[in-house]
Amino acid sequence: MSHRARKRFGQNFLHDPGVIGRIVQAIAPAKQDHLVEIGPGQGAITDLLLPRVGRLDAVELDRDLVRLLEERYANQQHFRLHSADALKFDFCPLAEGNEKLRVVGNLPYNISTPLLFHLLENSHCIHDMHFMLQKEVVERMVAGPGGKTYGRLSVMLQIRCQVRMLFPIGPGAFQPPPKVDSAFVRLTPYPEPLHGVKDMETFGRLVTQAFSQRRKTLRNTLKGMVSPDIMLRCGVDPSSRAETLSPKDFACLANAMEQACPVPAF
Predict the structure, then answer these.
(1) What is the pLDDT of residue 92?
(2) Are residues 176 and 75 in the same domain?
(3) Is 114:140 a contact under the CB 8 Å cutoff?
(4) What mean pLDDT comes out for the span 226-233?
(5) What is the model's pLDDT at position 177?
(6) How many CB atoms sit inside 10 A of residue 209's CB?
(7) What would the pLDDT profile of 72-130 be if each residue is shown by its tens digit?
(8) What is the domain range of residue 179?
(9) What pLDDT, on a 0 to 100 scale, did the predictor assign at position 41?
């Protein structure tokens, strides 16, 4: 049964055996592992993961691919397929007892950022995540303060996970080849957010607002949320811009917001 990649699902199927082997080596699956594969496609990575793990759940949106995968792995008792949208899928019920899931996938570029944020909401039941993503997105994920690639995505991921770019992947590894370069990345969630963040909702609102107008100073972008006095107490210059602040700086501001109620307008 053949399948033509569909643009509306952002499908680019991995076919390069060398790249596939390198990906599996980086994941390092073990018999005790419970893997969850997002977007298994035609099973290029699934084929190598299944014999190495205790259990593998796969989440696939394309119903034609669901039928293909059901036929291909019909006799694999430790394989379970979910015909579902990963953006709406509840991952944690897959975990049994105290086990942690290992999540892998070739994520469609058009939903990669919202899917990463959705997975962060499930991070308490996830041991690690390995993804193929657009290289530009991965560069934003791992970026440090001070550069143009550093932004909301960098801060929100790095406060919750250790993020490491593992290796680049060229367009030729996929069929059809995408118009951009890709990269393979590992995210390992921390048990708790770094730097003692007390409320992730407050932290998220602060970071989003700070980067909403990158050219403006924090005094202006955070007006009504954080006073200059609070910024100074956190060692943050009110005349600086969001891209100069570390995740630790944002954590200090968010925690101070929680303590200062209400924050005086200015």
Answers:
(1) 96
(2) yes
(3) no
(4) 95
(5) 85
(6) 18
(7) 999 999 999 999 999 999 999 999 999 999 999 988 888 899 999 999 999 999 999 99
(8) 7-191
(9) 87
Look at residue 261 and tell me whether its pLDDT is greater than 70: no
pLDDT of residue 71: 93
- Which residues are registered as beta bridge partners of 102? 35, 128
The structure tokens listed for 194 are 């770094």
Q: Is residue 2 part of a domain?
A: no
CB 76 within 8 A of CB 11: no
Higher pLDDT, 173 or 244: 244
Residue 22 lies in a domain: yes
Phi–psi pair at 129, nearest 5 degrees: -135, 135
The strand pair at 101-106 and 174-175 is best described as unpaired
pTM above 0.70, yes or no: yes
Instruction: State how far the Cα of 245 lies from the Cα of 217, in Å rounded to an integer.
Output: 12
- pLDDT for 12 equals 72
Residue 147 lies in a domain: yes
CATH at 245: 1.10.8.100
